[in-house]
């Protein structure tokens, strides 16, 4: 409710004679707008009426309840205590030690929860003799306030919201629930953090659900605008739009810095009052991570270009689905995903290469440059999709090894084609060679045993990557399981290119 709603409710309760409820509503009004003189005046009058002889003479048992209402406001509470202490001539009850042990919170915490309650009420205006200020001036100020334009009211609301944003992680405390300490409890350590004093019955799992995934908060973070979400849910929303999902406030700074405000209080509340629900939520998260970590089923597939084992493959990531895919590969710890060529009929090619992420550079607008390198070849068994990007069930393929005379023949072919590829590369223009070296690095050395690597010699893949071939012409080399066939194919391509150059 806003200020006017609390104020009208307080007036109605005062008319019905429900003084305690009316005082509570007036205190809420002063908390929302500390400069409103009429609300302050009404609250002062009710406080004075509580300590007058006519009221407390019959309602002494309500005195602790008054202090309970004032517990979030230390300054006003101390002033009320002093009035009670000085009221012995009016037969006012003394404060007992038990009544003084009421819940307290700092002014800064209450300011965060209510919107700056430091100016709740000036204690100097609460006089013991019951005299009030000039009511005409106060009524005039109130009339001016009521006649203010909507722009002024919206500016006040904006200031209140801004103060709440700065302390969005502080949960408001219920003034009606006292924190009664047991006499048998050991003395509290002054250096320790205060324990949470929220009744267990007031907590429900549905009250602590993320508004995006509709599940219990897991790794809750709070935005500068004061809204709390699961970290993974917020990151997915920022992949599409750098604004708060609820209020549409700009979150470009969070996206640029990649630093989110972890809500420690929310985590402690969930861990203390909803341990079983948190255990179940953690189990579901771990199952999701285990499923995403599987590199045989539902492997994420980046449909883009050709990739080869041992060859670097830098990528520019800007689409939301691939931002999510790369982030999940890093979170699971595998740091691997598949790369396939696009296919107009099947969606993507039947063969591809697993890439491993070596480094990720993220820009302020959410784009990123991924430095990856080829690892293993695979064949697609079944295609699928997950959260906007492609997935596939795959099986890995390796070269078939040969022995005896076939091995000696393979060794001779290997040396011959390596010399042919090296001669072709050194015959290129200096500008073209420099571009190739900057992108793919130098040509790998010839292996002593060409069959030592299950994917074949590294220089073969480097040569295929730099040869001026279209992707569809390169794809058959990736699917070959015979190193001899791959070497013969490279030799024919090099011979064709050399004839065209001459």
Automatic annotation (TrEMBL):
InterPro entries: Lon_prtase_N (IPR003111), Lon_prtase_N_sf (IPR046336), PUA-like_sf (IPR015947), Znf_RING (IPR001841), Znf_RING/FYVE/PHD (IPR013083), Znf_RING_CS (IPR017907)
One of the record's GO molecular function terms: ubiquitin protein ligase activity
PROSITE patterns noted in UniProt: LON_N, ZF_RING_1, ZF_RING_2
Disordered: annotated span: 82-103, 116-195
Polar residues composition bias: residue spans: 85-100
Keywords: Metal-binding, Zinc, Zinc-finger
Compositionally skewed regions (Basic and acidic residues) per UniProt: 126-138, 168-177
Key word Zinc present: yes
Alphabetized SUPFAM superfamilies for the sequence: PUA domain-like (SSF88697), RING/U-box (SSF57850)
Superkingdom of origin: Eukaryota
Domain RING-type: 210-248
Pfam families: LON_substr_bdg, zf-C3HC4_2
Boundaries of every Lon N-terminal domain copy: 289-498
Name of this chain's protein: LON peptidase N-terminal domain and ring finger 3
High-level lineage: Eukaryota, Metazoa, Chordata, Craniata, Vertebrata
